[in-house]
Automatic annotation (TrEMBL):
It comes from the Bacteria. One of its GO terms (molecular function) is sequence-specific DNA binding. Pfam families: AraC_binding (PF02311), HTH_18 (PF12833). The lineage of its organism: Bacteria, Bacillati, Actinomycetota, Actinomycetes, Kitasatosporales. This is AraC family transcriptional regulator. Residues 173-270 form the HTH araC/xylS-type domain. The keyword Cell membrane does not apply. The keyword Transcription applies. InterPro entries: AraC-bd, AraC_XylS_family_regulators, Homeodomain-like_sf, HTH-like, HTH_AraC, HTH_AraC-typ_CS, RmlC-like_jellyroll. It comes from Streptomyces abyssalis. Keywords: Activator, DNA-binding, Transcription, Transcription regulation. SMART domains: HTH_ARAC. SUPFAM superfamilies: Homeodomain-like, Regulatory protein AraC.
Length: 275
């Protein structure tokens, strides 16, 4: 983490279904990546710039970055002052439950916009963090649900249904299955294409269309996702790096920080801290 930067990525044991990140970044650059959760980032200072669905977005003080699960995105500072924000990573099951009680959304709920200028909702997100940090679990849980319900009402809608599977999508899905199985020892791009009886450029095109990033970027993201699970289980950093296919612990640390926002050691310490 750079000089002047700080971040805490943690989970309150009595607040299931949500991870919390409070951070100040100056020169931080997030690589293209995805989350299994809904991302709700409330900007307190500075400007965060992020690429999402082929467009560049800017979120400043009082603004929110809203990203649905599985959507690739990247981010960096919008100026030399960087940005400070509070983030909620909210489990899809929790969001679905809140939507079922409070929102008139048919289908899977999601955010209809990537950026919202909404100081009221941003303030609620910050209050969730403060309550959790102070151990006020009832307040944190209540504010979290109020914030998600408000965001769905003001900025939400049904996520688009998944399009019909094409031949290219089926090829991409088969390639993903191979990469998941051989995460620690993946084939070359040419070897993967040969295994699937397709061309290299056809595979690249199909994979990007299906998953929003080329196979190598998807693999790095998937390795970090799996590394998080291993770290949460208490697996040492060096063993985690080897298990997911990173060459060494420093390789894990570099990619982990560019996707999760904190070093893997700090992430693991927070997860294993006694409740």
């Amino acid at each position: 983490m750079g000089a002047g930067e700080s971040a805490r990525h943690w989970r309150h044991p009595q607040l299931p279904g949500v991870d919390l990140l409070r951070a100040r970044y100056l020169t931080k650059t997030f690589a293209r990546h995805t989350h299994d959760a809904y991302v709700i980032g409330a900007i307190a200072e500075g400007v965060e710039v992020f690429r999402h669905r082929g467009a560049e977005h800017r979120a400043g003080p009082g603004g929110l970055a809203l990203i649905n699960p599985g959507v690739p995105h990247s981010a960096h500072a919008g100026g030399p002052e960087g940005w400070r924000y509070d983030v909620l990573y909210t489990d899809p099951g929790l969001v679905a439950g809140i939507a079922a009680e409070t929102a008139s959304v048919r289908g899977t709920p999601g955010f209809a916009t990537a950026v919202a200028d909404d100081p009221g909702s941003a303030g609620l997100v910050a209050r969730v963090h403060r309550a959790a940090e102070e151990g006020q679990v009832l307040a944190a849980d209540s504010l979290l649900r109020i914030a998600v319900a408000r965001l769905l009402r003001l900025h939400g809608g049904p996520l688009p249904s998944r399009p019909l599977t094409t031949a290219g999508a089926r090829t991409a899905e088969r390639a993903r299955a191979v990469l998941e199985e051989r995460m620690a020892d993946p084939p070359t791009l040419e070897g993967l294409a040969d295994q699937l009886s397709t061309g290299v450029f056809a595979l690249l095109r199909a994979y990007r269309e299906r998953y929003g990033m080329p196979p190598h970027a998807w693999l790095t993201d998937a390795r970090v996702h799996r590394a998080r699970s291993l770290l949460e289980a208490g697996v040492p950093l060096a063993d985690t790096a080897a298990a997911v296919g990173f060459t060494d612990q420093s390789h894990l640390s570099r990619h982990f920080g560019r996707i999760v926002g904190v070093p893997p050691g700090a992430y693991q310490r927070e997860r294993l801290r006694p409740g």
